[in-house]
């Protein structure tokens, strides 16, 4: 079989008189073979010198073709081992991940627009009265010192409160291992910059959060996607790929994964940590939205089972608190603490002292528990209503993952419907939703949407689904 494939590769015809460069011609031939399935995932490509000799071209031409294939996600290079076929990009997007993912997230909407793309909290569900009380208490107690931070790790009182809060979720840590950050995105970026060298292999769920992929790629990581099905992470695929590629880092969202909303079982979490020990890699656990759960979910974080100190736990507080106030924290494994702290200092020195003290007050005065309880009750009711609407109106048009929590529905369109066309037609009707293609590691299927109920009232949500139904009817 392998001999047949190599024979087909060496039969590639390149035209030296064409205006198209030879490396581009070679790139296109190999790309076509990958897309047609002739070169399967993890197939080891022939060595550069062998390929150059057989095709009677300069080795540099093969190098350039391989580099272009790698850059566009068709190949993965492993130092000292060669180049391997990556997951096949089924569609090539004309837009970058960032453009596609966040194209409709602007707040400058026309009057009457309904935003069901943003995961920022509905401002009307936040108690300004409680927040004002917290600000006044902090300023009365600390005066001008409320704006200062004496420690690069963050305010000690907040780190102490966070360590206590974490113990309730079975994560045992000390304030010395807590680094306050300006949101989860900064935490992911810090980890990438501290740990990744160009060419390092990183695993990520596929689909996943585009911002994480952006940070990892910016550090030179070669990202391998681990597929997710209706049961969550495909552990069999994860283990199979570990045997071929040895990642330095794995990025996961074990509870309420973005965009699918699925959560891992305790068995899966323990399996991943066992593999981390055996294959010697670290895990970034992005705890994106574990404060809003709709099911009897196994809600202990992956970090709660970490006896090997291999999990870097990142929690965004702004996602559940006030989106405009960028605040979060990460739990640092002892061996990585110095490098993570160093990158944080280079990034922005410290996060706002006032914001830290306000949140510390929320934790110590029980305002945080009250806030979470109200949010849970509010979104629980809205989630149930959205499930009824989806079941009644859209069974013929799409399937969806039933999320274990959070604010989003991950939808797969049926009957050949194009996600791009649904997004465009919905916008014409004043509804903003997210195209799902941006959440994939490399492939860009045109059949997924992410719909969020975070920033809309129940009344607006119902109207939004009406507009979506009209948009689908128009293009069906």
Automatic annotation (TrEMBL):
Q: What is the lineage of its organism?
A: Bacteria, Bacillati, Bacillota, Bacilli, Lactobacillales
Keywords tagged on the record: Aminotransferase, DNA-binding, Pyridoxal phosphate, Transcription, Transcription regulation, Transferase
Question: Coiled coil located at which positions?
Answer: none
Which GO-annotated molecular functions does the record name? DNA binding; DNA-binding transcription factor activity; pyridoxal phosphate binding; transaminase activity
Q: Which Pfam families match?
A: Aminotran_1_2, GntR
Instruction: Identify the species of origin.
Output: Ligilactobacillus ruminis (strain ATCC 27782 / RF3)
Q: Which family does it belong to?
A: In the C-terminal section; belongs to the class-I pyridoxal-phosphate-dependent aminotransferase family.
**Descriptive protein name:** Transcriptional regulator, GntR family with aminotransferase domain
Every HTH gntR-type domain range = 20-88
Report the transmembrane regions from the record: none
For the keyword DNA-binding, the answer is yes
Q: Which InterPro entries match?
A: Aminotransferase_I/II_large (IPR004839), HTH_trans_reg/aminotransferase (IPR051446), PyrdxlP-dep_Trfase (IPR015424), PyrdxlP-dep_Trfase_major (IPR015421), PyrdxlP-dep_Trfase_small (IPR015422), Tscrpt_reg_HTH_GntR (IPR000524), WH-like_DNA-bd_sf (IPR036388), WH_DNA-bd_sf (IPR036390)
